[in-house]
């Protein structure tokens, strides 16, 4: 069994920054009304 928060390692500040950059980019223009979790899989473990 995988311990909570350790599925893909620990989430770091760069992970949050990368998501913020993605959301600010043109690449995410078609993504609307979503809650995007950046938690290294903690919510599924």
List keywords for this structure.
45 residues, mainly alpha, 27% helix
Count every beta strand, where a strand is a DSSP E run of 2 or more residues. Answer: 0
- Nearest-angstrom radius of gyration? 12 Å
- What is the molecular shape? flat
Mean of residue pLDDT?
Answer: 84
The structural domain count equals: 1
Q: Profile the largest sheet.
A: none
| Weakly predicted, low-confidence segments | none
Helical content, roughly?
25-40%
Structural class: mainly alpha
The end-to-end distance, rounded to whole angstroms, is: 9 Å
DSSP summary: helix tally = 1
Strand fraction: under 5%
Order of helices and strands: H
Provide an overview of this structure:
- The chain has 45 residues and is an all-alpha fold.
- 27% of the residues lie in helices and 0% in strands.
- The chain is built from one helix and no strands.
- It is flat, with a radius of gyration of 12 Å.
- The mean pLDDT is 84.
Topology summary:
Layout (H helix, E strand, L loop, with lengths): L12 H12 L21
Question: TL;DR?
Answer:
The chain contains one helix and no strands.
